[in-house]
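Worked problem 6 (solution included).
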Amino acid sequence: MSSQTQAYSLKELLDMAIVIATQSHINQIDKAGQPYIDHPLRVMTAGQTLPEKIVGVLHDAVEDSDLTLAELAESGFPKEILAAIDAITKRDHESYDTYLERVMANAIALRVKIADMTDNMDISRIAHPTAKDWTRLEKYKAILPRLQQRLKDSTHPRN
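Solution. The predicted structure is:
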């Protein structure tokens, strides 16, 4: 359905986003052996506004499935939400610093990325963490304060 013919409330968009994320991550398993959709749902729950919740549940859908931003636009998601999803979607062959700069330039994406990293840092969900898991945790521990400081310094109003 075209966004030009149908305007949805943010609550309706959140309901749609949950369905789309569930479909996008079907049969995907996380590092702890659990259904992957649990992670986007936890990130969604951490959101404080409806746009943050929508982006939170969809934050990995474009990156980790065949879903496209164009399809989300056709489904009626507004530009503000599409821009945040675009900002938080890592591109192939992109440096992590370039990715983080784009995330930090978008207020919603920044808040969602902080929630994403915070959830990913919960190593207690992994029964037997590997050296790779501990390395990833250390990487996130080094990056998270940078994101939190950007949020603190930010003059972005809540959306």
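Discussion: The two ends are 25 Å apart (CA to CA).
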